[in-house]
Amino acid sequence: MRNRLSERALRYRAEIELDVRSAATKFRDNDQEASVARALRLWWSSGVRGPRFAQLIQRTTEITQARISLGAVQRGGAGRREAMPYFFEVLRDLASNERQKRLAANSRRDDLPA
User: Fold this and answer.
1) Whole-angstrom Cα distance, residue 20 to residue 90?
2) What's the pLDDT score for residue 11?
3) Considering only 7-16, 26-35, 88-97, which range has the smallest mean pLDDT?
4) Could you tell me the residue range of the domain that residue 65 belongs to?
5) DSSP secondary structure letter of residue 73
6) 69 vs 90: CA distance, rounded Å
7) Is pLDDT at 76 greater than 80 in this prediction?
8) In the structure, what pLDDT confidence band is assigned to residue 69 with cuts at 50, 70 and 90?
9) For residue 37, what are the contacts with CB-CB under 8 A and spacing of at least 6?
10) Smallest Cα–Cα separation from 36: which of 27, 23, 50?
11) pLDDT band at 3, cuts 50/70/90?
12) Other beta carbons within 10 Å of 97
């Protein structure tokens, strides 16, 4: 059982890493390795399950791309790139909302009579 869980975690880690690298390339990130490490820390600290966190990264990429298209976020030159910081703000908000939903659902379940 433990092996299966670690295999799944590794699979989702690889998916998350790939998706963050893709976003980092798209948004001209200055340091992809730091962005991958930041996303993995956010994943572990958020308590959001791997498949759902991977979906949140994809949604975050869509939101960030839409904001760039509107001109609200600049991709800019080196030292003036704002897209990845914006990406992480959106990802942090989505992960936080997901965690709140899960906690609320667990709270409602605990309130039910046995």
Assistant:
1) 13
2) 84
3) 7-16
4) 2-111
5) S
6) 16
7) no
8) confident
9) none
10) 23
11) low
12) 12
Which phi and psi angles does 31 have, rounded to 5°? -145, 90
Inter-residue contact 84 to 24 (CB < 8 Å): yes
Q: How many domains does the chain have?
A: 1
Pick the closest to residue 81 from 68, 94, 62 (CA basis). 68
What is the Cα–Cα distance from 113 to 48, expressed in whole angstroms?
27
Inter-CA distances, 52 with 1, 8, 9, Å: 21, 13, 12
Q: CA-CA distance, 28 to 22, in Å (whole number)?
A: 10
Say what the pLDDT of residue 92 is: 97
For residues 11-26, average pLDDT: 94
CA–CA dist 44, 66 (Å, integer): 27
Which tokens go with 74? 């600049």
Q: Given this model, what pLDDT does residue 10 score?
A: 79
